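User: Hello! I'm new to structural biology and keep hearing that structure can be predicted from sequence alone. Could you demonstrate with Lysine biosynthesis protein? Please show me the input and the output so I can see what each looks like.

Assistant: Of course. The first part below is the input, the amino acid sequence of Lysine biosynthesis protein. The second part is the output, the predicted structure written as tokens.
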Amino acid sequence: MFDVNILCIVCMLSFTYIEKFINTWKTRVTMQALKATCKVCGTEFDLPEDIMDGELTSCPTCGTKYIVKISKDKLELEEFKGDVEDYGE
């Protein structure tokens, strides 16, 4: 027969896991996709959720390269004028 304390702990852990799963799902569903507009050709394209300040990205249509600038309340693209070297990454 199960010990009541162990059963209670298992139930609490199960409910905690389910609650975290639901909250994560809600966040993913309600999170808006990050959109950017190319300054050269005007194409609107999606950026990855996990994009970071200073990361390089490019327009999928014309290939113009940008540096992503993220501030507290907005995202900007600054045209990248240098050569891109990823060192095999």
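User: So the tokens describe the shape?

Assistant: Right, they're a compact way of writing down the 3D structure. Reading them back into a model, for example: Confidence is low (pLDDT under 50) at residues 27-31.
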